[in-house]
Amino acid sequence: MTQKPFTFNPATQGVASESLQIDGGYVQAAGMAGGSQQAPMVSGGGSASITKADGTVAPIEPAEAYAPMQTPAFNAQERTYFAEAEHWNEVELLGLCLGVPRYADRDDIAPEHSREGMKKAIRDALGDGSLPGDRNPDARPGEAVYGGVWRIQPLDAIEWAFRCEYPLPGWLTGSKETELHARHEARKAAAGRLTIDEAAQDLAKGTGQDAVSWLELIVGTIQTSQKLREDPKSKLTGANLVALNPRDPTDARPYNMPAAPHWKHGVRTKHEQVDRAAVNRWLDAHPEWLVSYRFEIRDAPADVPGTTPASKPISRQRHQEQEILRVLRELGHDPCKLPKRVNGKRWVAADVRDKLTGPGWTKSIHTKAWQRLLDDGSIREA
Predict the structure, then answer these.
(1) CA distances from 107 to 35, 51, 54, 78, 147 (A)
(2) Does residue 87 sit within a domain?
(3) Of 188, 210, 229, which marks where a domain is finished?
(4) Do 87 and 60 belong together in one domain?
(5) pLDDT digits over 256-272, tens only?
(6) Rounded to 10 degrees, what is the CA torsion of 136, 140, 143, 147?
């Protein structure tokens, strides 16, 4: 993920915290009403001071040095608007990401150096499809600056912010929690997915065996399969089982689980997912277990809330990744055995980009698609 030029600190009770940016040895607090201030920093000797708006420096107690500064709270009218709006535009989303109620382009609310990074992130996401949005046909010329020309569904915006780790105000995400959960569960069911924990619980009910044993067995198989995937000489079979991307039910590729353990096996069993049909094949590959239970393979519902809009950017991203893999093979490279980089020499990624350069293939799109392939193991250096 591209490094963000600021860090968000979600505040309690729905009050959005300011964004902080290191600037000349101070932490510059953006989004403060009435101008920006320099947040106190404690020196090596343990003393602290704060630079006021008039330029004077005042000493403060160490306990005060770490007191969080807050931006103005969203008033009731603003909260109602954002919670009930059918669409947000890109300027409104900018304000929410910066934690300011409105006028996010005003220097005394959110200084330019603190907002430009977020503006670019939103603009790039709308451009490459990772943030779904439609052009507003009724937008007037001036709205490109003051009102925004994109229509973005709130649930799509919140999901994008979650993926990019841009915390939005707690009162806002809380108001959409039920809708977000329903959308996620509908997508998961339509894709025939279960969390690892759900799979173990269902197997326990269907076989009369305890869930913990099934959990241990599933997790062990996934870990073994992940190691096999890292060996170019190995090939997965029905006896293997892979975890799937919990954030994207349309992504059928094996998912590399995080290295940091969230469970004693290093697997987040209530988060990582498996495919129902794959679990059935896994059971078929072990007749010695004498397990007759099989998961029901359901037909996808005709209309899954939120599936159609969200599938557009996902499909676009998959197409971008497939184009890179196609060109790699055309150039005679095995995507899983790319030549090692040599300092000062042109590498294969540049050759691929030259083949794909066009109006719909920018440097940013290429870099992001390449990184996604690296992250999921679809391309590797020999």
Answers:
(1) 8, 19, 17, 20, 17
(2) yes
(3) 188
(4) no
(5) 766 544 444 556 788 88
(6) -60
Helices 307-330 and 348-356: angle between axes, nearest 10 degrees = 120
How far is it, in rounded angstroms, from Cα 110 to Cα 101?
11
Whole-number Å distance between alpha carbons of 50 and 61 = 10
Residues in the chain: 382
Per-residue pLDDT tens digits for 188-233: 888 889 999 999 999 999 999 999 999 999 988 888 887 887 777 7
Which helix (DSSP H) or strand (DSSP E) does residue 62 occupy?
helix 62-65
Cα gap 379→372, rounded to integer Å: 9
pTM above 0.85, yes or no: no
Residues 334 and 361 in one domain: yes
Alpha carbons 226 and 256: distance in angstroms, whole number: 7
Domain assignment of residue 115, given as a range: 76-188
223, 266 contact by CB (below 8 A): yes
- Closest by CA to 325, choosing from 380, 364, 363, is 380
Residues 297/280, Cβ–Cβ less than 8 Å: yes
* CA atoms of 49 and 94, how far apart (whole Å): 31
Contact status, residue 165 vs residue 9, Cβ threshold 8 Å: no
Residue type, 29: A
